[in-house]
Fold these 2 entries.
Entry 1:
Amino acid sequence: MSYLTNLPEASKTLTIFHADLDDSSSFEKAIQGCFGVFHLAHPMDVQNKEPEEKVTKRAVEGTLGILKACLESKTVKKVVYTSSAATVLFNDKNLDVVDEDVWSDIDICRSSNLVGSSYLVSKIMTEKGLLEFGKVNGLEVVSLVLPLVVGPFICPNIPSSVYIALAMIFGMYFILSLSLHIIYFFTTQNSIK
């Protein structure tokens, strides 16, 4: 958390709340009084260690809990959900451009070896549930598909999208080599302390 709490003016402007997708009521306090909510949380099981149904249930129910807290707040006007390219790219349509009518095919997602199917399927089902909830309840929701987010980052680990961007530029061997260097560096630094 120090990478957030050490930001300039953080001691005056940043409030950190503990919330858990498995406990929908845990978002109420953080959402109370807000005009907009950016929903970024999603279970990351890219190695398929948990059953798809469990990951999907956690993601969908957690998101619905956040949306219900937004409605109950009476102040939230818009929810922005960070989607994933995974929700639109895994299909057999071979499209150059995708829009809100294009979805990944769940069967293709389940057969993909690129990323764990539980992540892919849960992202799709969560986003569909979010959009439906917004429509039924009159809550404005926006879903942003962010294929790659690159540039400076404040978190202590290199985001996966930065690895993907570097792989496209330098090739996978470079990325593996960079990963091993970083792991060695952190191992060495931690053993020195």
Entry 2:
Amino acid sequence: MNHVLLVEDDPWNQAVIEDIFRYDNVPGDLVCVDCAEKALRILSALDPLVVLMDLTLPGASGIEAIKIIKGDPATKDLRVWAITARNARADIDEALAAGCDGYFVKPVLRKQLAEQLRMLPARGASESLELQTARQTDEHDLAG
């Protein structure tokens, strides 16, 4: 099964990503958890195509979780994309240094995230995705 794991504590932000899967023809099954600890517990069994990680979470931060994921030989090759309101250069650099494979600033551009998710190879494909850093300009495309 092709799963995408969303680690997001805000129900409204979860709903935005759920809508992208529902209405923008994004393949795969979205699995949502509200903290890094839950994500780390299910990660190996779920084996997602990508982890969409908020960086500001209750308990362990998204950065801490990314370091654990990338430091574990069993999960080090998983794609992890930050989806966060933190848009300072230092935040982006910290996430990339922790092992993030992509960085999306909230509010995310719905079309841009949907396109990136559709580009993910299905489980078993050998394609890789280049680092995508998506930043919102003046457009507000969340509620769409």
